[in-house]
Amino acid sequence: MRSKSSVVLGALLLVVSVLLAGCTVGAGGSASGKATSVFALDTAKTVDVYVGAKGAGTVLGTGNGKVAIWVRGGAAPEATWKVTPIAKAPEGAKGILVPGVYVDTAGAEPSGTCSVGFLLPGPLPKGATVVKYAEDGSSWTPVPSVIVTASASQIVVAEVDGFSAYGLGDGGDGAAGGGAAADGDAASGKQVDWTIKVIGGETQKAQGWQFRYDLDFFASGGGVGQGGTYRGHGQVVMVGKYDETLGGIIKGLGDIKATARDDSLSFTICDAPLADLLTGDDVNSEDGVLRGSGIFHGKTKGTLAISATGPNVSGKVDKNANGDSPVPFTIEIAGEDVKVEIENMGIFGGKILRTEK
């Protein structure tokens, strides 16, 4: 029974968090014309992207990396955009890791959230950030960005409400125009405007034990859209009961009570379609679901009491346990509905709501 208790307490430490691997797009808006005289566009690789009701996106090679854009369904009028990789960063823009992309929206500017993401082979500089080039190409400014992990690859993503010429910068000062990189929403002054709340219970049975798991999960973050960094707290309370007669002779009784709490929960949610484009994963990119995963670092306190009685048998174990172990979880967001799944515990439902500040 001691081994069973350790398994149970270990399972408790499977709790919550989101690394919705995902991404977001440039800003700015472009009709056409100007960019061709300012930026070195690789027009041989221009891609026509039809932006329709289901959303649209594409991925292109640029420099030694990749860039992808994604437009959510309903975020822009129906139109065919021309998306062109930038072959070489403008001379005035220093500290550029990946030259980037230029989007000609044919005048059909988006009214909703878009996203842009970059993937660069090898390790990324700590301050890597999506950058928006000045119209004359002489400088750049950082766009609030996050680094997420998707399919074991690091991706730098930003969420915007329009398009322009975008690249990937190293976060340095840049001769003519970088400034420090935007370190997520906080450094850029961006307002938190999404809140995730998940409260629910699940019951599981295993080898004579019945377990009840209650999850209380709260986090806020995101930006113009639901993608971005979230911070909050999470707690799982587990109660286990064992009450069986073994072989009709020995009576076994058991109780487990434990709580795991993470008060510094932090994870990132991103648009799955954008991450899929960059990594080559074949996840359904048109279902409108944002997917992610995270790690719950729970501080755990628990008690275990087990006893057995029968002919010539009597025994009792009482144990207090404290722990601190990482617990992985996955998260899905479809509209306002949220599902948090923790292996061996269950699926807990909740909501994500816009709470503008």
Short description:
The chain is mainly beta.
Helices and strands in order, then pairings?
Blueprint: H1 2-12, H2 34-38, E1 40-41, E2 47-51, E3 56-62, E4 65-71, E5 79-88, E6 96-104, E7 114-119, E8 129-133, E9 140-142, E10 145-150, E11 153-160, E12 165-169, H3 184-188, E13 194-206, E14 209-221, E15 228-246, E16 250-269, H4 272-279, E17 289-310, E18 313-334, E19 337-342, E20 346-354
Antiparallel strand pairs: 1-5, 2-5, 3-4, 4-7, 5-6, 6-12, 7-11, 8-9, 8-12, 10-11, 13-14, 13-20, 14-15, 15-16, 16-17, 17-18, 18-19, 19-20
Structure description:
With 357 residues, this protein is mostly beta strands. Helices cover 8% and strands 55% of the residues. It has an eight-stranded antiparallel barrel. Strands 1, 2, 5, 6, 8, 9 and 12 form a seven-stranded antiparallel β-sheet that branches. It has two domains: 2-20 and 191-354; 34-188, Sandwich (Chondroitinase Ac, Chain A, domain 3). The protein is elongated and about 90 Å long. Mean pLDDT is 76; it is low at 1-33 and 174-192. It has helices at residues 2-12, 34-38, 184-188, 272-279; strands at 40-41, 47-51, 56-62, 65-71, 79-88, 96-104, 114-119, 129-133, 140-142, 145-150, 153-160, 165-169, 194-206, 209-221, 228-246, 250-269, 289-310, 313-334, 337-342, 346-354. The protein has four helices and 20 strands.
